[in-house]
Amino acid sequence: MVNTTKSRASRATLTDVAAKAGTSASTVSRVLHGGAGVTDELTARVRLAASELGYSVNRQARSLRRGKDTAIGVAIEDFTIPFFGRVVAEVERAAHARGYGVVITCAGSGRSEEEAVEPLLSRSVAGLVVATGTAGAPQGYLAEVATELPVVQVDAPAASPFSDAVGIDNETAGRRVTEHLLARGHRRILFVGSGPAATTVQLRRQGYEAAMREAGLEPRTTWMGYLPSETTERAVAELGELTSSGADGGGITAVVSGVARVTMGLASAIARLGLRDLAYVAIDDLAGADAFSPPLTVLEQDVETIGARAAELLFARIDGWDGPPSHELVPLRLIERGSGELPPRVLSTTTT
User: Fold this and answer.
1) What is the residue range of 194's domain?
2) CA-wise closest residue to 232 among 265, 279, 195, 278
3) 328: which DSSP letter?
4) How far is 22 from 42, CA to CA, in rounded Å?
5) 3-state DSSP call for residue 71?
6) How distant is the alpha carbon of residue 208 from its chain centre?
7) What are the backbone angles phi and psi of residue 38, rounded to the nearest 5°?
8) Is residue 14 part of a domain?
9) How far apart are CA 224 and CA 238, in angstroms?
């Protein structure tokens, strides 16, 4: 019978060593992989902590060429989200052209961004692309990492003082799709997001709310979860109520989907409820969106350009460019297919 119980030593991570030594994961990585700039006292403390925890460096992972690792690291939020897969594909393409490998890690399954990045630091990668899209990441740890190796953030909510960043203007995205519906006469517009933890989605919601308030209207937001199946069931329950007229004829006539992960669930719910006349606009395109009924209007990110620029910036840093951090915003494109151009639904007031 195989014993599947792991010892504490076999589960020790760079983060564990850092906690025990009273320092950061990036400093531990620098000590254990031969980096400079660490005091003798701190070096001894880190090595003692690593020894007591049974942490050992994966030497086979450190395939060095000309003093550098021949791999770059990419930390993403979720392998199942097409946006991140497309970013990785562009980064990998650029890396392959330069003879570099790509090591990928994921912040899903409840791991924090720092926990996702930690295995990449243990490999002594030549640089990092961080594309997790989550809120509350400990920026302090990434700032220290960026003092040791190049870091490019993808889908970052704002400019970074310590690393390059590439993404879109998320607040403008939320405002733009809302104004598109307002221009077609809609006044009862619902914003739907995956959850309040996603910084980018929160910024899109803020753009929606600003557009609504400037039009003298009351914003309405609901969160419907991260999984399409979860979103569908919640949307069926909520949309049925929110789209009914009620005594004051106050049902919503249009929906803004703030992120692709909820769009499929919402589309399924709209079809199941027979709400063919409910206007619907989504931020981010989906494969097959032109086959929806009616075809889905979207505000599309140029994800391939985002991934390619992230790679270009990273390799420029690896090659020695030391200019100030840049924050590049890639333009968005509105694709009008029909669902976002529907006029407000005619709501019948309940009478007795």
Assistant:
1) 170-302+335-341
2) 265
3) E
4) 9
5) strand
6) 19
7) -120, 135
8) yes
9) 9
Encoding tokens for residue 44? 């001894």
* pTM given for the model: 0.77
Beta strands in 119-265 (DSSP E): 128-131, 151-154, 164-167, 189-193, 220-223, 254-257
In a domain, 35, yes or no: yes
Sign of the torsion formed by the C-alpha atoms of 202, 205, 207 and 209 = negative
Residue 247 domain-assigned (yes or no): yes
Report the C-alpha gap between 221 and 182 in whole angstroms: 16
Task: Look at residues 326, 321, 315 and name the one whose alpha carbon lies nearest to residue 68.
Answer: 315
73 vs 18: CA distance, rounded Å = 20
**Which amino acid would we find at residue 60?**
Q
Residue 163 lies in a domain: no
Per-residue pLDDT of the chain (352 residues; tens, 9 = 90+): 333 333 333 457 777 888 888 887 767 776 765 555 678 888 889 888 888 888 765 534 444 433 456 899 999 988 888 899 999 999 999 999 999 999 998 876 667 777 778 888 877 789 999 987 654 455 567 888 888 899 999 988 788 888 999 999 999 999 999 999 999 999 999 999 988 878 889 999 999 999 999 999 999 999 887 766 777 888 888 888 888 754 344 689 999 999 988 898 888 889 889 988 999 999 999 988 988 889 999 999 999 999 999 999 999 999 888 899 999 999 999 999 999 999 997 655 444 4
**In 3D, which of 42, 98, 109 has the Cα closest to residue 69?**
98
Number of domains in the chain: 2
Q: Which residue has the tokens 């020790």?
A: 12
As given in the structure block, the two tokens for residue 320 are 């020695």
